[in-house]
Structures are given as structure tokens and as C-alpha cells.
TrEMBL record, chain A:
<dbReference type="GO" id="GO:0005886">
    <property type="term" value="C:plasma membrane"/>
</dbReference>
<feature type="transmembrane region" description="Helical">
    <location>
        <begin position="88"/>
        <end position="108"/>
    </location>
</feature>
<keyword id="KW-1003">Cell membrane</keyword>
<keyword id="KW-0472">Membrane</keyword>
<feature type="transmembrane region" description="Helical">
    <location>
        <begin position="238"/>
        <end position="263"/>
    </location>
</feature>
<feature type="transmembrane region" description="Helical">
    <location>
        <begin position="199"/>
        <end position="217"/>
    </location>
</feature>
<keyword id="KW-1133">Transmembrane helix</keyword>
<protein>
    <submittedName>
        <fullName>ABC transporter permease</fullName>
    </submittedName>
</protein>
<dbReference type="InterPro" id="IPR001851">
    <property type="entry name" value="ABC_transp_permease"/>
</dbReference>
<feature type="transmembrane region" description="Helical">
    <location>
        <begin position="12"/>
        <end position="38"/>
    </location>
</feature>
<feature type="transmembrane region" description="Helical">
    <location>
        <begin position="146"/>
        <end position="165"/>
    </location>
</feature>
<dbReference type="Pfam" id="PF02653">
    <property type="entry name" value="BPD_transp_2"/>
</dbReference>
<feature type="transmembrane region" description="Helical">
    <location>
        <begin position="283"/>
        <end position="308"/>
    </location>
</feature>
<feature type="transmembrane region" description="Helical">
    <location>
        <begin position="114"/>
        <end position="134"/>
    </location>
</feature>
<feature type="transmembrane region" description="Helical">
    <location>
        <begin position="58"/>
        <end position="81"/>
    </location>
</feature>
<feature type="transmembrane region" description="Helical">
    <location>
        <begin position="329"/>
        <end position="347"/>
    </location>
</feature>
<keyword id="KW-0812">Transmembrane</keyword>
Amino acid sequence: MRIELVKRPQQSALYSALSPFIALALTLIAGAIMFSLLGKNPLDALYYYFVDPLREMWSLHELAIKAAPLILIAVGLSICFLSNNWNIGAEGQFIIGAITGSILPVMYPDLQSWIILPLMLIMGVIGGAAYGFIPALLKTRFNTNEILTSLMLVYVAQLFLDWLVRGPWRNPQGMNFPETRNFHQYAILPEIWPSMGRANWGFVFALVAALVAWFMLSRMLKGFEVKVLGQSPRAGRFGGFSASRMVIFAFLVSGGLAGLAGISEVSGAIGQLRPTISPGYGFAAIIVAFLGRLNPLGIIAAGLVLALSYLGGEAAQISIGVSDKVVRAFQGMLLFFVLGCDTLIHYRVRFVGSTAHKAEVSHGNA
Amino acid sequence: MVKTKDYENARKYAGNSGKRITSMKKTILSLAVAAAALSLGTMSAEAKVKACWIYVGPIGDFGYSYQHHQGLLEVQKELGDQVETAYLESVPEGADAERAIERFARSGCNIIFTTSFGFMDATNKVAGKFPEVKFEHATGYKREHPNVATYNSKFHEGRYVQGVIAAKMSKTGVAGYIASFPIPEVVLGINAFMLGAQTVNPDFKVKVVWANTWFDAGKEADAAKALIDQGVDIITQHTDSTAPMQVATERGIKAFGQATDMIKFGPQTQLTAIVDDWGPYYVKRVKAVIDGTWEQHDVWDGMKEGNVVMAPYTNMPDDVKKLAEETEAKIKSGEFNPYTGPITKQDGTEWLKPGEVADNGTLLGLNFYVKGVDDKLPQ
Amino acid sequence: MGMLEAVLMTIATAATPLLIAAVGELVSERAGVLNLGVEGMMVMGAVTGFGVALTTGSPWLGIFAAIAVGALFSLLFAFLTLTLVTNQVATGLALTLLGLGLSGMLGESFVGLPGVKLTNIDIPFLSDIPLIGRLIFGQDPVFYLSILLTAGVAWFLFRSRVGLTLRSVGDNHGSAHALGINVILIRYLAVMFGGACAGLAGAYLSLVYTPQWVENMTAGRGWIALALVVFASWRPWRVLAGAYLFGAVTIGQLHAQALGIGVPSQLLSSLPYLATVVVLVLISRNRRMTMVNTPASLGRPFVPDR
């Protein structure tokens, strides 16, 4: 017996709605099995994983902090992926955005005025967009595979940041530790509601970006252009759309949003540059983009779910001593199930015996 | 038991207060904090103290985080029923650290050890919000609140002993040093090693390779091979993996272990190892919380206090062993500080006059080599 | 052992795991499947190899077990991306995540134990030839295997019928299917070959390079292997050249330091990545070369129409 997929004529609305729940159920079952094998009470473990972090206000704020960069980056990536541009270098664009955004508070710490923060954010966007422009340019000019160039540039960005904070940008008062000076008060992204928790405006940026992107994709001609060129470049050309202009557009948008995420994270949550400023947000956002099915509104939900899995992992580690490795393995499983279940939206799954298969082949192409 | 319950309730109020309006919240919060402080101060032996640790790496690194975790296990063993422990491993430095520390503070930890330099600002931030919880930050220098203490170990005392041994054992007169990052602690170790070696052989050389990692077995092995190929016949390291020890074994030269006793990885190779023993300190500090005698401090303990322990001296002739033991005893008794003049800087200028002892402030920010180190310090 | 000879030996050791993992990934990509889970499969191989060798006392059993586990682990990826047509990029990333977590769990009891080392082959007399003796006749067995593997894959892809079929699947799965080729089956096998190679590369780390187990011991080598495949424009012998170049740069940088020559190490470390971008640009500028070398269907999902 084998599994066969039959493409649905159109997306199944039923499975569109059901698939996240099927995936969740499967994850819960698999997770329960895994936790029992480890000798932990599965109900306790799942409770700490999925419910405990949502019980308190401060923790919800932390959820927003963790989700903000994931959502911001993933929204940009969704435009890229929908238009069939494979930017997997968002991590690098995030880092470069953080660096260019930090130029003012690090190199000119005496410039202290309210104008600094907006300038930093703008410079962060520009830096990220410029770094995203490189693979786009190489793709349009030389037909270079953007998956690989954008990935390579991640390492270059990481090493560049490492060199900066250990060398020219090292804090003169920092006892030689590899970090820049702390940002002054005008360079800090404020918290939304300080008495409740420490979530900063980065989360608001993320929500706004998602809404704007959603509006563009579903209500504007540009969104139509993105999708047409993504599904069929030929059809797009007949429609008068330029594929290479779209490449540039997609990379500029996603790079810019990643850069904004970078500078928001640095000025909001960290307050200085360090050798590592991202625990892999740029890569995790790829997963978020797919979990959210490349729909900006779905991405908000997906970003929150992935952020919850980080927070829940910590809660489980503290409360019942589930180790950090289990948490990662659990995240991997969750993603597999979600990705697998989404197949149901586009395809009908059939289990066929080998004889039935032969019969079908002889019927030829339908 | 009543006391504990009061404390629990107080904490619950503190946690829920975020949902109320600000002015009211403040009143309740201060009440809760007062109640918590009160119950903490008078906490009797029947109440369990919760001690929590945050590690930057996995406890399976068999190096830095592993040793801190050994300290946690010792606390469990020594204090038994009086204490409850928890830990978080592989916590990235940055935004995640602050959340992890705050989650600990809210989950009822009475004392929290944050064991990496990069947790410094996060520790101080959270400490400001939870005055009733004690915070202990390893290797940092900021203590912005009365409930933050800092602690560190003088590992360079062990390096000095290693230098003495290396100069005695080496035939080529050159030792290889695998270093992680050019931060003061590492520079301090390289210099101490050099100073120790110079007491035996004034012309001794140290070659330094910066691996730019704390932990990458492959890269550390490569660095060890590169050094050996360039003629060193003793390897020491300030990175965490056991790979250099294994390479030294393969090539038939001697090496020193780092952070843990690595004798299993080089039974015929390891001369000694500097063992980070955080156990005694952790037991002391958790006990202070139990007894209600905890106070803020900044300690830099070494051999004397039992934080820096030398693994058994092996694979060396008796006279070298004797000299090593004497050197160790001299430092341990407090009669000798490795950073005692005369010491000349690498560029030939005088740093310490004969008999002058370097002050801790200079040492903790050390950014230059002493004479004889065969390397240019990355700036 | 002379200095130059010793340096070359070190470079060979550094290059071998990269070469093996990259050649495996190359076959998978030639069949049109981009598997970003190399790091995860590699680390699973490392923990399996170490554990089996430690319990049985035989490094060879460890190696075989690592190969088997690497292939099995990649099967998970193959099932999702090929049978359920999930996105290859996202699935590969998830595979890496799962591999790093799972290997940490499995390896918890191995931490701090010295492993079993696979001993070097030493052909008498021949290995005493100056300069090249040890290099050619005194290496570890997997080193020879890695060269044979490269040669084998080069022959298979460009000289054998099945290799031609595999490449046609990667170039245009639509027409390959129309010609009656079982696209999915070929891709399953190619992905599993890639997994087996990644497993072997991981075992090389934990049994030859540094015989020990520590969490995340692959330390990003899986990603470098991915870069090498592109750097080599999907050609096996160029992968070999790339892996050795990469090894030489890494080792050379350490030697420069030991000699007291100060160059920012970050600059040197970033050279291989920048070089890859440049090479990519150069090969893709020339349309004909691109057509010849790049698997055109790379990363595209395939569902047989009927």
C-alpha cells in the first residue's frame, strides 16, 4: 500500500480550518508519549508548556517580546515566498539592521535628543533593506540562486558584528568585554505599558506591519502582482508585471522589515550590541511564515504560538525539570505535524494498493 | 509551615497585582514585598529555600556550565531537605536572559545564580523589581541593588602553578596556549602562566592561538595541532572541550586540563588540571539565605577558599611535583600573589616595582601582556 | 613528521567531515531536493556513532550505525517533503531543530566519557616516504573512504545511466515523469544517501576528529557543507577542492596566529562565504554553465499528475 496525493481543484476550506487543530492534537499525543517515556506526568508537562505562560500579565508581555521579531521578519518573508523569491538570509538582514541602526548611539553617544530613536529605526530599515538588496541584485543581474547567496551573507553579517563589538565598537568603559556601550535613554525603544510588563513598541510595529501587508496582499493591485508572479511568471509577464522589479521589491521589503526587527530588538530588549543578538530569529521566522501559511494574519498567530513554545519550554524546565533538549525536540515535532497536516488543504490523501495504482495509470492523464 | 503559606500568598498578590490600576497596584505590591521580606527574614529551618541557576551553555558541555551544575548538585547533597533547586540551561545572553531570570524570581526562587558575564545587565534589572530575592552574578562587576552580589574565581592562581610545571617539563622551552576570547580573565591567565614559567626559565616562550570560541571540540583540536606543529611540547587551554587533551595524547606530549579533571581523556598526558569548584561557595551562600544572614558582597575567591582546585599532579618526576606542590601551598596560604613585582610589560616598560602587588581593579580589566608572551593581543 | 606534512594531515582531517556531508547533500540536490537538515542529521550520526562504539567497543560498528541512523533520520524529511509535499526549506530547518534536541537527549549519559578512536591505517614502508608518505598511506580509514566516495559519486552522476536518470529528475521532474521515471522513488533514495553521508560525517567527528560526545558538537559544520555544494557548483571534485580549501583557510589562520601574525580572524573566517557568493555569481553569469550544472528543479515540489 502506498500513499498518493490528489490535488484538489481548490483549497479545502474545511481542512484550512481543521488542519491546525489536527496538528495540535497529533503534537499533544506525540508529546504526551515522549514525556511519559521520560518519566514525567504528560498532563503536567503539557500544562506547563501551553497554559502556564499565559496565566500572568508579565508573561504575556514576554510573549509579545519574543513574538515581535518573529512576526516582523515572517511578514516580510511571506511577501518574498508568495512571489517565489527565496530569501533565507533574514538573519543577516536582522543583524545588519541592528548594526546600522546602532551607529548613532554607539559612535555619537553625545547626540541626545528625541530625534535619535526615529532616526535609528529608519537607519535600521535602510540597513536591512540594503543587505537584502544584494541577493536581489545578484539574482536579477546574474541569475544567481538567491537561496544560497542570502544564506552565505548571514555568516558574513554575523562575523562582521563579531568583529565590530570586539574591535572598533567595543565599550571603552566595558573592561574589554565584547559589547558596545549601553544605549542612552533617547536610544531606547520605550515600553508600551511599563507598569504591566516590559513589552516594547516592537510588538506594535509587528502588528502594524502584518495588517499593512495583509491589506496589500488581499486588497491592492500590488498584492495581486505578488501572487501572480509567484504562481506563474509567464502569466505575470503577459499581465505587464516585471518579474525582476518584483524580486527587488520583495527583498527590499523583507530585508527592511528584518532590519526593523533587528534595531527594535537591540534598542528595545537588549540595550547594546553584543556578539550574538539573535537566537536565530531569522531562521525561526521562516518556520513562522509557513506555520502562518504565508498569510500575514496567520503569521501573527503562528509567531505567538512559536514564542509560546519557547516560554513554555522554560516553564516546563523550571517546574518539572524537562531539559532544554526535550524542548527543542518537541518544537521540531510540532513543526513537522503542522507542515504535514497542511498538505490536507491542497491535496486529498489516498491510500492505494499497487494493483489499483496500475489501473489508474492505464487510464492516462485526466 | 504557616510562615511559608503567608509567603506564598504574598507572592501571589505580587504576581496578580499587574491587573489592577497602578496606584492600587503600588500599595499592594509594597505590602506584598514587605510581607515577603518579613517572612523571608524570619524563615525557619522547616521552610525550604529555593535556589536557582541559569547557565549559558548546556550542562552537557563538560566544561563551564557543567561545573556550575556540579555546584548545584553539591548544594543538593549538602543541604538536602532544606533546599529545593532548579536550573535553566542554554539561556542565550540578550532578551531571553531577562525573561528567564524574571520567571525564576516569580516562581518562588529565593536566591538566583546567574552564571555568565552576559547576564549582568539583565540580572541587575530584574533584581530592582524583586528586592526580596537574592541575586548572585558570576564574573560581573555591576551591583546596582542591595540584593545583587557578584562572585568570581582566581583561576589565574592555578595557571601560575601550571606555568612553573610547564617550564620544568618542556624540552623545547615553548608552550602552546589555546585561548578563547581576549577578555581580561583570559589575558590574566596567560600572563600568570608566563610569570610562573619565568621563575624556572626566564627565556620561556608562550605561543597563543585565539580560537574565538568557548566550545568547539574540532576547532580546539585544530588549534592544538597547529601549536604542536610549530614546536610546542606542552599545551594548555582556556577553552572548555577535552579535544586538546586528546590531541596531545595522540602526539605524545603533555597538557593541562581545564575546568574539570580531564585525566580520563589523557591518563598519560595530563600534568594537572584547574578544577572550577563552585560547590563550596554555592553551599555557603544558600546556607546564608536559609539562616537569614545573606549580604551583598563582591568576592574573588581562589585557592585559599577552595574555589580553585588543582587536580592531582601526574605524569611528572618527583622534583617537579614537589616544586608544584610548594608553589600551590604558597599561593593557598595567602603568602604569595602571582601578580607581585617586579613585572615588566610586553613592550618593555615597567608595570610593578619589586614587591609591589597589583590591585584587583587593574587585574579585572587587564588588557596587556607581560614580557615574554609571543603574541600580539587582539585589540 | 615534518612541519608541512603535519599541516597537510591536519587540513585533511578538518576537510574530511565537510567533504563527506557535502557530497551526500550534492547527490540529494542533484535529484532536486534541498535538504537544509544536514546539521541535524550529522549530529544524530555523531551521537549514534559515539554511543554504539562505546557500548560495543567497536568503532566500525559505530560508523555503520551512524550511517544507518543518518539515512533513517533523513527518511522523515523525505516522507514529509516528497510524499506530503511540504516545503523543503521549512522542513529541513525543522529537521535540524529535531536532530539537535534529540541527540542531546540521547547523549546525556555519554558526556564526559572518553570515546573509542578509529585507529589510523599505517602501511609499512610506504608511510615512511618523506612528505607524502603519511599523508597518502598513513591516514584514518574514513579519509580514504571520503576520496573513494567523491570518485564514486562523480562516476555515478556523470558516467552511469542511473546517474543520468537522477540528474534528469533534478533538472526537470515533469519531463522525467513523462518519460516513465519514478521521480519520487529516485528522490527518496537520493535523500537517504545524503542522510547516510551526513551520518558518516557526524561519526567522523565523534570517533576520529575528537573522540568524545558533547552537545551540538557539529558546531555549524552541516551548514558549511551546504555552502560547499553551491561553491562547487554541484560538482563532486570541486566539492573536494572546496572542502580542502576551507580546511586550509581554517588551519592556516591558526598557524598564522601561532606564528604571531595578527590578522582579524573574523575577516579570514568570512572569506569562504564571500568566496562562495563570488563563485555563484561567476557561474551563474554564464548561462550555459548554469544550465549544465544547476539542478533546475532544486527545491520545487513534485506531485505526479494524472
